[in-house]
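Q: Please design a sequence for this.
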């Protein structure tokens, strides 16, 4: 589903995506309110969501859609994945989007191949974390105090992690992909996927982006 108040932007995305045999555009919406009303019937697996739109902005729509996804029949069994479309000038929106459960963010001026790859990555159940952008956004907000740090030495959930899972969590929090973590720890990528899955389950987190937020909030990593 394409959600953007600019018709020309949606048309541009449509032109890029229509040529991909494994990607089908099932719906388009001009604002968040339309997206919310259409999502159940459209059943998208991935939603490309603009932030600044009239009536209901992208963050409000993301909150409603992901808040309803647990009981919704839309998209996959776990509900649709939301990718926030943003610019560097909209840093303040990105961290909130991560808190709301967005599966990642993509710069609006990203190359076409990045857009296509982003959709495939998120549809496959992974999160879209650009390490450079992620470190800039979360690092900036941590330094400014916008990230609410918890005054605890060791959250109860962390005690359930093994030493290796804790190590993987720290690398994940730096914005590293499974492949990069596997290379760093000299382990197979499938093994890393298992560790990440265990971490998310034990910490009761939606996806790896939520794990990044968790790590920063609990003082496990800093800029």
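A: Design:
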């Amino acid at each position: 589903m394409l959600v953007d108040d600019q018709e020309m932007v949606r048309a541009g995305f449509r032109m890029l995506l229509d040529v991909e045999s494994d990607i089908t555009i099932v719906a388009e919406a001009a604002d968040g309110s339309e997206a919310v009303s259409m999502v159940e019937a459209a059943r998208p697996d991935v939603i490309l969501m603009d932030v600044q739109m009239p009536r209901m902005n992208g963050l409000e729509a993301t909150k409603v859609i992901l808040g309803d996804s647990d009981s919704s029949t839309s998209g996959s069994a776990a509900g649709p994945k939301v990718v926030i479309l943003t610019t560097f000038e909209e840093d303040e929106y990105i961290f909130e989007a991560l808190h709301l459960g967005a599966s990642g963010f993509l710069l609006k001026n990203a190359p076409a191949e990045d857009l296509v790859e982003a959709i495939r990555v998120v549809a496959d159940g992974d999160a879209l974390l650009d390490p450079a952008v992620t470190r800039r956004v979360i690092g900036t907000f941590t330094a400014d105090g916008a990230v609410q740090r918890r005054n605890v030495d060791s959250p109860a959930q962390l005690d359930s992690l093994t030493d290796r899972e804790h190590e993987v969590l720290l690398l994940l929090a730096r914005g590293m992909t499974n492949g990069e973590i596997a290379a760093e720890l000299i382990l197979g990528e499938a093994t890393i996927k298992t560790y990440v899955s265990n971490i998310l389950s034990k910490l009761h987190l939606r996806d790896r982006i939520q794990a990044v937020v968790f790590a920063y909030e609990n003082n496990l990593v800093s800029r």
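Q: Thanks. Anything notable?
A: The longest helix spans residues 189-203. The chain has two domains: 2-128, 149-217.
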